[in-house]
Amino acid sequence: MSKRDIAIIPGDGIGPEIMDATLAILESVGFEANWIPLEAGLSAVEKGLPAMPPETIDRIREIGIALKSPTTTPSGKGHSSANVALRKALDLFANVRPARSLPGVQGPFAHKDLDIIIVRENTEDLYAGIEFQPHPDMAQGVKVITRPGCHRICLYAFGMARRQQRKRVTAVHKANIMKLCDGMFLEEFYRVAADFPDIQADDIIVDNCCMQLVTRPEQFDVFVTENLYGDIVSDLCAGLVGGLGLAPGANIGIHHAVFEAVHGSAPDIAGKGVANPTALLFSSVMMLRHLGEYEMADRITNSVMRVCEDGKCLTGDLGGRASTQEYIAEVMQHAKAS
Fold first, then answer.
1. Where are the strands (E) in the chain, listed by range?
2. What is the structure's pLDDT at 318?
3. Annotated active-site residue in 12, 125, 231, 317
4. Domain ends where: 183, 207, 240?
């Protein structure tokens, strides 16, 4: 059987290090692919290209699947987000971000068994990037919400919940203030919910959601929400289970899928050999499940959980002193033994 092509974007900062670590673990469990490296981020910008070059987008469109390390996006100035450009170009409308407790990882909710999935609309809202400055002292941004966009993200969330045998889907919104935009989202949520009577459907205002997440996070199962709220809530949930170093993500469209770590490029620790590759590794696990490679996905997940539970070979962000190489060697050892 010929190997499948999978695009990889090494990214910026710690990106190349955690990509190499992830590919090594994937290959250690027998996953074979033609890894096709593509350029994006600072390396592209330094060559005078867009942060997400059209050639990279076209290649991923042709291949259909990609694994992406973090790319740097400057705040307030400089080049635009490579992530946003890729999501819009390929219509990757569903951003799926799980937040799951790992044994041995310390934190304020380590005693709770958290397993939350955030399904975030990925192409609309303020992230459409429609901004203008009519006056030096005034800037305006346009929040774009469409009924088809609301419908398909809610349909995806309920369909995913049913496939994974989840019990509850909660819409996160601010419809009490944004009665048209968020009101439309809420209308479509309950319209879709009517076709899934086996799943509990309810909604929560975003500020109340954040408060309840830091008091009783165990009550939640699946969130579905608009772009900006999803970005914020998913980072909050990552903090509940140990931080962004453990937070994977998948960007799913009708014909394409891009899997990426939620965290940034962390240039301050790049090249020091201390980066935690777990977020990108778990993103690759989501990719394996997307491809139907469930046994390999389970082996990697169980291996990481055993390493965390043992607690003897964790990276600094998880309270340990292990290098990136030491950590992945330990994960690979467990994966080969399983």
1. 4-9, 33-37, 65-68, 94-100, 115-121, 131-135, 138-141, 168-173, 200-205, 222-225, 248-252, 257-261
2. 86
3. 231
4. 240
